[in-house]
Description:
Elements: E1 2-4, H1 6-12, E2 20-23, H2 27-32, E3 39-40, H3 44-48, H4 53-56, E4 68-71, H5 76-87, E5 92-95, H6 98-107, H7 110-122
Parallel strand pairs: 1-5, 2-3, 2-4, 4-5
Helix pairs in contact: 6-7
Amino acid sequence: MSRIRPDELDERLGTDDEPFLLDIRPESDYGSGAIDGSRNVPVYDDLRSGDDAALRRRLDEIPDDSEIVTVCKMGIVAKRATRVLDEAGYEASTLSGGMSGWNGYERGSLGYKIRSLWWRLRG
């Protein structure tokens, strides 16, 4: 399963290689802050409880002609969304660290820098 780090995603935003950002968090979380240009399909709670069908029912809302980057709170539940999308024939990746990682990247936090080093070492 493919992952993308926040710094890698940031480099691609606004370019011809920009992926479709699928934010699966609940609407209230999405409304409190999201990556510009992302689309909210709030299936986080369903996927977290093991209901993959919730996302499958909404695949018509997701373009099939570009790479998809799934976003959640920490990146854990987004991995499930990425798996569902992979199985459905989409080219999909998970944002490493989710919105927590993205926010840390934007702030340049020490926590993000440590996680980023860990992600790079894991390959």
